[in-house]
Specification:
The structure holds 2 protein chains of 2 kinds. Chain A is mainly alpha-helical. Chain A is built from 12 helices and no strands. In chain B, helix 3 (113-123) crosses helix 4 (128-141), helix 3 packs parallel to helix 5 and helix 4 packs across helix 5. The chains are: A mainly alpha, B alpha+beta. Bound molecules: adenosine-5'-diphosphate (ADP) and magnesium ion.
């Protein structure tokens, strides 16, 4: 704080602002706190505190449906993250480094999944799969159905955009002369990418990947549209449970998901802030 | 669009190039256009092996673009680039026998000094022990001992500059391209590095193509200078030729300071000035042709107004308008009829000094006049 700020008396405006800040914090974090606290509640009735216990966490681990949904979530998240990180990085490179016909249009289209509502995205994907299935059946004679692969493909579709945006921000700050210097020092395009560009954009790539992982693990809307029977992910399963009434089990599962998401976001931020050129 | 020269014309040009001795770098009728901007316009240039050649010109005149076309970072719109007789065509930078010291240095920020310097050798799959030996040699050569493990941002500007130099030199390129390599350094360091670079070039014997907008730098370091303006190469010559015998007003004006006097050639080595007076000039211009006389300030001297001029010397009379004291020298601005001439005089005891307002004679040897016909 500068010296000038310290001597200035706190007027009513400042007090209102400070109060507002606190109100926002309470508004945001009180529910989260409640959720966590009640996940350790031994009582079957959600809102009534009994004694602290790990009962619902134990129940969660014994629940086959929860574990199956968790497994599905992890498969979808890891697969869609891997694929979308590669494609998203490639898209960022293409948009930032090369000139090609239709670049501007492509530029806009890449960001579309970020802008359009989840429900629209979900309906689009479902429609796409239904149409694709018709064609696949006509051509190959096999009849595919909705399931883990369609969920994964949908997650790839929206994750590419997020990865591309994060990687591109990193690329924009990279001096193009570095790649020219690599080429001047006999590096092929691939070598220049591997030895110079990639290490320098790595924080962006990893940050994008973690963001993709988080988004995939959290998605409900798109997934519930394109999921088949028996292929629910954890958040979709929780959503289903809630409709039948909130149980403390949901609190436990939600707390686990919350902690996992926060760790991923934190990791993403840390990686993006770390730059490889700092010694 | 890039036009590749037809095989036939390439062949005849190649044999011509071989007939004369092979130049390290040869540009023939090179044109580079960026959409609506013409950066380089029909440039012809031969740089012999082992020469320290400078491209000198104001900012935006196309120096960097020319250098990048030699490096392969830009492909000419028209014309051909040859390196040691070999047509470069569309060949990418990684397959050209040249290395570049970039204006911004472009050091790899995630690599140490050592790794930066070893990069080129590694890309060419040099054996590990030879790489180590050559990197160590170059670190010695560019005086970076003890800095091997540092990252670029832990170095001063001068040290970074030397890493960029070492990173290029370690590959033993046939031609080293340097784009204003000293531009980011302060004056003292720049002057020290000028001498160091020149010495280095003589020691390793590599052809240097050196881009600068600093005329003093070009004069100090170069074997030959090419003066560029607006995408064109105006004149190529030794520093002395360029300074003493500029062929155009632009060259005379850009290199050093010059007084210009409009005149009309009279034949027999005489010219008539605008106010009717006649002066002696080096012979050669056809009578009646409008010419410009270029006179360097240090070739003029100020003498007392009444003093008779020795035969053959030119002498005009004017009034001292301004006197600028520069320590080792003095500059006078002397108003004649219609023009003001700048005169530089050494600050030695034998030279009489004048004051502002004095009526003085300005005297010069006709042989030191450059006649520009434009
Ligand atoms: N990539 C480019 N695209 C468009 N114009 C360019 C490009 N590179 C250079 N130019 C233009 O070409 C001219 C010469 O530039 P440059 O070679 O960088 O000049 P110098 O190095 O002498 O300052 C300038 O007018 C510049 O704006
Ligand atoms: Mg330049």
């Amino acid at each position: 704080m500068r010296a000038g700020d310290a001597v200035r008396p706190r007027g009513p405006a400042q007090r209102v602002l400070a109060a507002n800040t606190w109100a926002v914090y309470v508004f945001l974090y009180a529910p989260i706190l409640l959720l966590i606290v009640f996940s350790f509640n031994d009582n079957r009735i959600v809102g009534v505190w009994n004694t602290a216990s790990l009962r619902w966490y134990r129940e969660m681990l014994d629940n086959a449906a929860v574990l199956n949904a968790l497994r599905n979530s992890l498969i979808v998240a890891l697969a869609s993250t891997a694929v979308s990180t590669v494609i998203g990085t490639a898209a960022a490179l293409a948009l930032e480094r090369f000139r090609f016909p239709g670049r501007r249009v492509y530029d806009g289209l890449v960001y579309l999944p970020v802008i359009i509502p989840d429900v629209t995205m979900a309906v689009m994907m479902l429609l796409f799969f239904v149409e694709a299935f018709v064609i696949v059946q006509a051509v190959l004679g096999i009849s595919p159905s909705l399931g883990i692969p369609t969920i994964t493909l949908s997650h790839i579709a929206f994750n590419i955009s997020f990865v591309a945006i994060v990687v591109r921000a990193r690329l924009a700050g990279l001096d193009p002369a570095l790649e020219e210097a690599a080429a001047d020092l006999y590096a092929s395009r691939w070598q220049a990418f591997r030895r110079v560009t990639l290490p320098l954009i790595m924080p962006g790539v990893l940050g994008g990947a973690l963001l993709a992982l988080t988004l995939s693990l959290d998605d409900v809307v798109v997934t519930s549209f394109v999921a088949g029977p028996g292929s629910t992910t954890l958040p979709v399963y929780v959503f289903g449970l809630v409709r039948r009434g909130v149980t403390p089990l949901i609190n436990a599962v939600s707390t686990v998901m919350l902690v996992a998401s926060m760790l991923l976001v934190l990791g993403s931020l840390l990686i993006q802030r770390r730059s490889p050129d700092r010694a | 669009m890039t036009t590749t020269p037809s095989p036939a014309s390439t062949a005849t040009k190649a044999s011509e190039a071989l007939a004369v001795s092979t130049a390290a770098v040869e540009l023939a009728e090179v044109v580079k256009r960026f959409e609506d901007v013409t950066a380089v316009e029909r440039l012809d240039l031969r740089v012999p092996d082992g020469e320290f050649f400078s491209l000198l010109g104001p900012s935006g005149c196309g120096k960097t673009t020319t250098l990048r076309m030699i490096a392969g970072l830009e492909i000419p719109t028209e014309g051909s680039v040859r390196i040691f007789g070999e047509e470069m065509g569309l060949r990418p930078p990684n397959r050209r026998p040249v290395n570049t010291v970039f204006q911004s240095y472009a050091l790899f920020p995630h690599m140490t000094v050592e790794q930066n310097i070893a990069f080129g050798l590694q890309m060419r799959r040099t054996a590990a022990d030879e790489t180590r030996r050559r990197v160590a040699e170059v670190i010695e050569l560019v005086r970076l001992g003890g800095m091997e493990r540092r990252k670029p941002q832990q170095l001063s500007g001068g040290q970074q500059q030397r890493v960029a130099l070492g990173r290029a030199l370690v590959n033993q390129p046939k031609v080293l391209l340097l784009d204003e390599p000293l531009g980011a350094l302060d004056l003292k360091l720049r002057q020290a590095m000028q001498l160091e670079l020149k010495e280095l070039q003589e020691r390793v014997g590599v052809t240097f193509v050196y881009v600068t907008h600093d005329q003093e730098e070009a004069l100090t370091m170069s074997d030959r200078i090419g003066v560029m303006d607006a995408g064109r190469l105006l004149q190529v010559g030794t520093p002395e030729e360029i300074y003493e015998h500029p062929r155009t007003r632009m060259v005379a004006d850009f290199i050093g300071q010059t007084n210009f006097l409009a005149a009309v050639a009279q034949g027999q080595g005489e010219a008539r000035l605008a106010d009717g007076r006649t002066v002696n000039v080096p012979p050669g211009s056809t009578s009646g042709v409008a010419i410009t006389l270029a006179l360097r300030p240090e070739k003029l001297s100020v003498v007392p107004a009444g003093e008779p001029s020795p035969s053959g010397a030119n002498q005009l009379v004017g009034v001292v308008e301004r006197r600028v004291y520069l320590g080792s020298s003095l500059t006078y601005e002397v108003a004649l009829e219609g023009v003001t001439l700048r005169v530089r005089q050494e600050n030695t005891p034998s030279v009489a000094q004048c004051r502002e307002g004095d009526r003085v004679g300005i005297r010069w040897d006709p042989a030191s006049t450059t006649v520009l016909e434009e």
